[in-house]
Write a structure and sequence with these properties.
The complex is a heterodimer of chains A (about 500) and B (about 500).
Chain A lengths: L6 H20 L3 H25 L5 E3 L4 E3 L1 H20 L1 H6 L4 H20 L3 H19 L6 H32 L4 H10 L4 H17 L8 H8 L2 H25 L8 H18 L6 H21 L3 H26 L1 E6 L6 E3 L14 H4 L1 H14 L6 H15 L3 H26 L6 E5 L4 H14 L1 H16 L2
Antiparallel strand pairs in A: 1-2, 3-4, 3-5
Helix pairs in contact in A: 1-2, 1-5, 2-3, 2-5, 3-5, 3-11, 3-14, 3-20, 5-6, 5-11, 6-7, 6-11, 7-9, 7-10, 9-11, 10-13, 11-13, 11-14, 12-13, 12-18, 13-14, 13-17, 14-16, 14-17, 14-19, 16-18, 16-19
Chain B lengths: L6 H16 L8 H23 L9 E7 L7 E6 L1 H21 L7 H20 L3 H10 L1 H11 L4 H30 L4 H7 L5 H18 L8 H8 L2 H26 L1 H27 L4 H20 L4 H32 L10 H4 L1 H15 L5 H16 L1 H26 L6 H4 L6 H19 L2 H15 L3
Antiparallel strand pairs in B: 1-2
Helix pairs in contact in B: 1-2, 1-4, 2-3, 2-4, 3-4, 3-11, 3-14, 3-21, 4-5, 4-6, 5-7, 6-7, 7-9, 7-10, 9-11, 9-12, 10-13, 11-13, 11-14, 12-13, 12-18, 13-14, 13-17, 13-18, 14-16, 14-17, 14-20, 14-21, 16-18, 16-20, 17-18, 17-20
Classes of the chains: A mainly alpha (about 500), B mainly alpha (about 500).
């Protein structure tokens, strides 16, 4: 037992508890209280960030080998908390509007992230399963947070049922692993199989565990829930799914392959297949979509494919590429999904009749963006830069993320699959361009998009855009940081 | 290490910085944006002339070299430098951009600020990619110029602009991702992306590897040139692009493909280049004859000139892969000559289109009676395109055919057919559009060229004839680099 090792997680968890408790006692005056919970949430994030930055000195396993801290886990947690802070700032508009549930919403975000951080440090399948559930259960609730909307409840239910199936698979996998190896601990299993051959049943068990993770990060062919859930959930929840939750998910997968060494023997091929399938689904699935949330959902499937492709090389450069890819991708999707949070509603310019708001899903039709470059050039330029970057056009950040992944793949002599991967990225460029086309080339519609007037969320998006434009300047420090954290 | 006066960075980043600076400004009078753009591009032009004058012609090495390590020793340096080939293409770029902006003043009225920004960005990226002597830096700039060009075609283009802009973007992106894979492979095998370093390492690769890398490079460059069978995006892009967009596309962008062949394919993979030379010859001959025949049958002037560009670029690729001094000299000469002539021809089409709003040959006739000055200048460019002795077009085609004759007689003879066909369609076009009866009342009311048009077309005409009479003005710049290139074979 060594309590300081879990301070970062505890900070978030305590923050959530304080928000919930103070909501019970002081929450009568809802009009002002959401601000207090907003600041408590931010404060607990900063505390967690502080502990994460300082826990790099506390390296090793704790709680009888159940919990593991390394410079890599600290780095991942650090990035996850930064993403969480940005999501919370973006959510300001949402919690100001939905004052009754603001405390619960923030608490769920914090608990889910805290669960995710436990998950990253999990060093035993017991902690692994428990923290995965701690991360997932808030996500199901978040998906249905628009409780008055049918679509939102549907997406929550869908996510919950499919998520439970994945958890079932995970438990089956863990049972197989435990049954044939006699241990649930990563260190013990690694030690055991570094000298002995791995029984097929253990590999099968590990495969099932990996499949459960594929489900969580929506890699094809386990991606079916993604478009529906992304479309049905509130924009801010979708942002959280696509950034914090997805980043943590891929990093957990990476840790499984990194730290549970020899039990993955022969699974590289599964990774390559899943990676290519995800890219295919991501690039072909999005072409026909008319809802921007569904489009971005498919695109996120494709991006996960790229990250797994980097991981599938199971080489030092591949793992580095995977981490770089996920950091850039998480920031990019924070920009593009976060952009949707800036939309206030549609204004009927000719009649001045009504203002439909976020709950009306029509505003996320791609056609409602038409002519945005004329009505709001700055917002259009932001989204255009994000789209070009996501499409991987240099010198924007998205290019470098793909560059390192392909580089790692070629280094491992995956020539054919690298060419297939870059061709998929050409196909996906088509629908990113489509959004730019709608904004810049099409005429202004009757219904114009209205943006929120708050500045903080806009600054977050501006920050992401600036990061993309000036990425070359960040490249060197980022590479150095990853180099130090991975230690190879 | 940055030199005390880094002129290459200056001419690359001056337009880019100016474009970014322009973003927040608003102005009631769109002319102000044009004036600003003209000022910046003129300063860039003056700087490039200074570059041209202080260039040392007697050396084949890269000059004005600038080097800055972005990722210490992990590839991807900021490494700039120019030789005799790129210096001329840079000056061509800086020369055409102010003209593009000037001729758009009256025809572009919507979103003027964005228009000027796109052109300035494009200028910066193009100059940068001519200066880059790092593969990855070249790739980054080569790709980046897709964004402004996509917007130029898509926003200010014609009826089917969206289809054309997509086609342009996706075709080029398809080619360049293969280029990227090849670059990454090279980087992993050699640990460097520096052209000067790679020149010494890559030719020692086994032929089998060279062939694959050469093909990956070639697909990307052939799409950009464009060579048969990758040429189908060009007519669409040209027809739909605004006049200035066509000028920049024909004048500069398609030269990048040929430039990249000279800069990368030949010095990096000499054996593979020789191995594939017959393939390139075949594709060039098809491009020359087939595109000329297609051009004959076009009813849209822009489409016809676009196909003639495909044919003329066929001479360039043919000359490059003859691996003889005359052939490569001719190819470079033809690149610059075609840059001037086709840019001017697209401007001529633009002149007619601004006045009559049609590009169909059938709607035109007898313009010479109303626009004598225009007819005179158009004649010079038609002759330049045909390759009449005394114009720059002749020097390029003649040298390219002469060089090819030494390498492969059959190819040279077939390409000469293309010259004849070129004369056919260009003269026939001139006859149908400018001579004959006045076909409708609109032409009766035509006004002759205004000052901006006379100055811009006139300057180009002077250069077309000047380089035709004194080709040594240009040839002397790239003699040394071409000699060192030919020495590889």
């Amino acid at each position: 037992m060594f309590l300081p090792s879990i301070y970062p997680e505890l900070a978030l968890f305590c923050g959530a508890l304080i928000i919930l408790l103070s909501d019970v006692f002081f929450g009568k005056n809802k009009a002002e209280f959401f601000r207090a919970s907003y600041f408590i949430a931010l404060f607990s994030c900063l505390a967690s960030l502080y502990f994460t930055a300082h826990s790099t000195f506390i390296v090793g396993s704790f709680f009888h080998g159940m919990f593991f801290v390394s410079s890599l886990t600290c780095f991942i947690k650090f990035i996850a908390v930064i993403l969480l802070i940005l999501v919370i700032i973006l959510s300001l508009e949402f919690i100001a509007k939905e004052k009754e549930i603001s405390a619960e919403f923030l608490a769920l975000l914090l608990i889910s992230t805290s669960g995710g951080m436990f998950l990253i440090s999990a060093n035993d399948f017991m902690t692994f399963y428990l923290s995965l559930e701690l991360q997932s259960l808030p996500l199901y609730l978040l998906a249905s947070i628009n409780r008055k909307s049918g679509k939102s409840s549907e997406s929550g239910m869908k996510y919950f049922i499919l998520g439970s199936v994945a958890s079932g698979l995970l438990l089956l996998g863990i049972s197989l692993f435990y049954g044939f190896s006699g241990t649930t601990n990563f260190d013990v299993a690694t030690y055991l199989y570094s000298n002995n051959p791995v029984p097929p049943a253990v590999i099968l068990g590990f495969l099932l565990i990996v499949i459960a993770m594929f489900f969580k990060i929506s890699a094809a062919p386990f991606h079916m829930w993604t478009p529906d859930v992304y479309e049905g959930s509130n924009a801010i929840v979708t942002t959280f799914f696509a950034t914090v939750a997805k980043f943590i998910g891929v990093m957990v997968l990476l840790r499984l392959f990194l730290d549970l060494s020899p039990s993955w023997i022969g699974l590289e091929k599964v990774l390559i297949l899943v990676a290519l399938a995800s890219m295919a689904v991501g690039s072909f699935g999005a072409i026909k979509q008319n809802n921007i949330k569904r489009l971005l959902a498919y695109s996120s499937v494709g991006h996960v494919g790229f990250a797994i492709f980097g991981l599938s090389t199971l080489s030092a450069s591949g793992i580095k590429a995977c981490v770089i890819y996920m950091i850039i991708y998480a920031l990019l999707s924070l920009g593009s999904f976060g952009f949707l949070n800036l939309i206030f509603g549609l204004k009927n310019s000719s009649h001045h009749a009504g203002l439909s708001d976020q709950s009306d899903n029509k505003i996320f039709d791609i056609s409602s963006f038409s002519g945005l470059a004329k009505t709001n050039p700055i917002m259009a330029a932001f989204l255009a830069i994000l789209m070009f970057s996501t499409a991987g056009i240099p010198p924007l950040a998205g290019f470098f993320s793909k560059f390192y992944v392909i580089g790692a793949a070629i280094k491992s002599e995956y020539y054919i699959s690298s060419i297939v991967a870059v061709l998929f990225s050409v196909i996906s460029a088509f629908y990113y361009l489509r959004i730019v086309k709608v904004m810049y080339f099409d005429e202004v519609q009757e219904n114009q998009l209205q943006f929120i007037s708050r500045y903080n969320p806009k600054i977050v998006i501006g920050f992401v855009v600036a990061f993309n434009l000036l990425f070359i300047a960040f490249l060197k420090p980022l590479l150095d940081a990853i180099q130090t954290m991975l230690g190879f | 290490m940055i030199n005390n006066f880094s002129i290459l960075s200056l001419i690359t980043f001056l337009p880019i910085a100016a474009a970014i600076l322009l973003l927040p400004f608003k102005s009631k009078n769109p002319k102000n944006f044009f004036n600003f753009g003209l000022l910046i591009s003129f300063i860039t032009f003056v700087l490039s002339i200074k570059l041209l004058l202080s260039f040392d012609k007697s050396s084949a090495d890269f000059q004005f070299v600038e080097m800055f390590n972005i990722l210490h020793g992990q590839g991807f340096q900021y490494h700039m430098g120019i030789d005799g080939i790129s210096v001329l293409l840079i000056v061509l770029t800086t020369f055409l951009i102010p003209i593009c902006l000037a001729i758009s003043i009256n025809s572009v009225t919507t979103r003027v600020k964005e228009y000027v920004i796109c052109f300035l960005l494009l200028e910066g990226f193009v100059i940068g990619s001519f200066c880059a002597i790092d593969l990855l830096l070249f790739y980054v700039l080569f790709e980046a110029m897709l964004i402004p060009m996509f917007l130029i075609i898509g926003i200010w283009g014609g009826q089917q602009r969206i289809y054309a802009s997509y086609k342009f973007f996706l075709y080029t992106l398809f080619g360049s991702v293969l280029f990227l894979v090849a670059i990454i492979y090279i980087y992993i095998k050699t640990g460097s992306t520096d052209i000067i370093v790679l020149k010494n390492i890559l030719p020692h690769f086994v032929l089998e590897h060279q062939k694959w890398l050469w093909l990956a490079f070639f697909v990307s460059f052939a799409i950009k040139v464009p060579m048969f069978p990758f040429h189908t995006w060009l007519p669409d892009a040209h027809v739909q692009a605004p006049t200035a967009g066509s000028v920049i596309l024909a004048g500069i962008l398609i030269k990048l493909g040929a430039y990249a062949m000279l800069r990368f394919s030949l010095p990096f993979f000499p054996q593979a280049s020789e191995y594939f030379a017959d393939l390139v010859f075949a594709l060039s001959i098809i491009a020359i004859i087939y595109a000329s025949l297609v051009a004959l049958m076009q009813e849209d002037m822009k489409k016809m000139i676009a196909y003639s560009s495909v044919a003329h670029m066929g001479f360039v690729t043919m000359g490059i892969f003859s691996f003889t001094r005359q052939g490569i000299d001719g190819a470079v000469m033809q690149m610059i000559s075609h840059g001037l002539v086709s840019a001017a021809l697209f401007m001529c089409v633009g002149v007619i289109y601004d006045r009559l709003h049609t590009k169909q040959i059938a709607d035109l006739g007898g313009i010479v009676q109303k626009m004598p000055n225009f007819a005179f200048l158009a004649m010079i460019f038609t002759m330049g395109s045909v390759g009449l002795p005394g114009t720059s077009g002749f020097v390029g085609e003649f040298l390219a055919i002469m060089g090819t004759f030494q390498a492969n007689k059959m190819v040279a003879i077939l390409s000469a057919i293309g010259v004849v066909l070129g004369a056919c369609y260009m003269l026939w076009l001139y006859k149908r559009v400018l001579f004959g009866e006045i076909v409708n009342s609109k032409i009766e009311k035509l006004k002759d060229l205004n000052t901006i048009e006379i100055v811009s077309l006139g300057t180009i005409a002077v250069f077309v004839i000047l380089f035709g009479l004194l080709p040594n003005l240009l040839l002397s710049y790239f003699t040394q680099p071409v000699i060192s290139l030919v020495a590889l074979f």
